[in-house]
Sequence to fold (321 residues):
Amino acid sequence: MPPFSEEPVGDMRVGKWFRDNYDNMQKYRSLVLPVAIVVGLFFHHWLAMMRPVVPFLLFIILFLNFSAVEIRKLRLSPMHGWMLLFQAVVSLGGYLALRPFDELLAQGVLIGVLSPVAASVVVVACMLGADRGTITAYSLVGNFAIALLAPLYFSFIGTQVDLPFHQSFLMVFAKIGPTILLPLVIVILLQWLAPKVNDFVARFKGWSFYLWAAALMVTIGQTIDFIFLHGKGNWHSIIWLSVASLVGCAVQFGVGRLIGRRYGDRIAGGQGLGQRNTALAIWMAGMYLQPLAAIFPAAYAVWQNLYNSFQLWQHDRRGEQ
Fold:
């Protein structure tokens, strides 16, 4: 029996210890992301060495969140199609428009808009009130769609234009697939063969936010470490890429909310289009583009999580009133 449980295991209920501590932690959740960013900033060198831990944290996060959704009832929406169309058109259009003026900035915009939705998007979106099924479905289809689209763009943009499409696809999919597919398959099996176990796991879904904060802290540390390693002598480019990422962050959250409002879930739309998998974007930039283009998604990681912190603070404040 777990040390915090005061109830029979057969009841499948979480005990008083868990509930009390979780409720206390909820009071400070709007501070969790800024603290993660600050810790990542000051301890970036040590945190960067912990990056192999992030996929395991994301696996647990997705496992907890998938367990709270009836997978067989997930449905695609026209909203998902419009958000993917925005990514496909704006990423390529932004690149082509900026390329004659600044190739590095153009590549930064390309990778910043093209990067798939963050695997942990469900965490914040649901805390803000999004429909869990809607945002979960987009986290799945959005990642797999970009796994197909990105290699297609990289076949004529960047430093690996001679790389065959199938090889490029497998490389991108290898970064996305296991983290998303494995927890999905396990949850499908649990919901089919052991629904009571799945229901018990789903009770812990609220803890995924704090696991995500830990993953964010490592990712920010990795990001800052990258900037220190590659930024020497390139501060002019870093400033322009950072400003462009701030504009891109505002546009994607704003457009996502407009699309989502039309289909009855502006939070899912805003988070789905605005919250990016910046760690994967940094990897793709280093693999296929000029490495310094990774500054765009690196700065984006800071902007999007500052905005997420503000949204959580605003949401909690409204709840108290």
Confidence is low (pLDDT under 50) at residues 1-15. The two ends are 39 Å apart (CA to CA).
